[in-house]
Design a protein that fits this description.
Blueprint (H helix, E strand, L loop, with lengths): L11 H4 L18 H30 L3 H6 L7 H7 L8
């Protein structure tokens, strides 16, 4: 029976890098690119637009309900827009 060392073939210079360090690419620059940053920003912007669209859609729908219906589903008739945007408090009581 032979005991072999682990087949970990990564050079020590890469293994012992600090946590925040990025390995340089072939040109010697860091791994951050303009396309990567712009894709991330575009994704965040798209998510924010979708979230705002959904909030406004829900606000239009809930604003058509009368006070009795809002109380039945547990929303405060004066502050339902705040509840829709930020969520309801979890410490509710009967």
């Amino acid at each position: 029976m032979t005991t072999e060392r682990s087949s970990f073939s990564v050079p020590p210079s890469v293994v012992f890098q600090s946590v925040g360090a990025k390995a340089p690419n072939k040109r010697g620059k860091s791994g951050v690119s303009f396309t990567g940053v712009s894709a991330t920003l575009f994704s965040q912007l798209r998510s924010a637009v979708i979230r705002e669209y959904r909030f406004r859609r829900d606000l239009r729908h809930v604003s058509q309900l009368d006070k009795r219906m809002l109380k039945d589903i547990g929303l405060n008739p004066e502050l339902y827009h705040k509840d829709l945007r930020y969520g309801r408090d979890t410490s509710w009581s009967f």
